[in-house]
Amino acid sequence: MADYDPHCPLCKLEKVTAWHHEDPDFVILDCDVCWVPMGVMRKHGNSEQDSPGYTRMLNKLMEIADKVLGKGNWWIDPIQRSVPGHTHAHARHKGWW
Asked: For residue 3, what is the DSSP state?
């Protein structure tokens, strides 16, 4: 699978919401659908879930979720729902869904 898909909205990553962190492996930004912090791996595909970069992304997402949503008021949702072909995770408010 290619590292970039020009049709994938998570590969494009347009800056339409707040960005909290950016590095070569991932970005932490506010989701433009549910308005909570989410981490997005820069490479297209789902193989990134086994990478050290994914672990770093989750750690940074948890740090930012504490600041944005309040310590202990969130949980990590790693399910790829509306964009199943690109590794990402949301920090959801407790009680969501």
From this structure: S
Q: How far apart are CA 19 and CA 28, in angstroms?
A: 6
The residue to which tokens 């998570």 are assigned: 10
Query: CA 34: distance to chain centroid?
Result: 12
The pTM score is 0.92
Structure tokens, 59:
């750690």
* Contact indicator for 49, 35 with CB cutoff of 8 Å: no
Say if residue 40's pLDDT is above 90: yes
Q: Which of 42, 43, 45 is nearest to 29 (CA)?
A: 42
Q: Check: CB of residue 20 under 8 Å from CB of residue 37.
A: yes
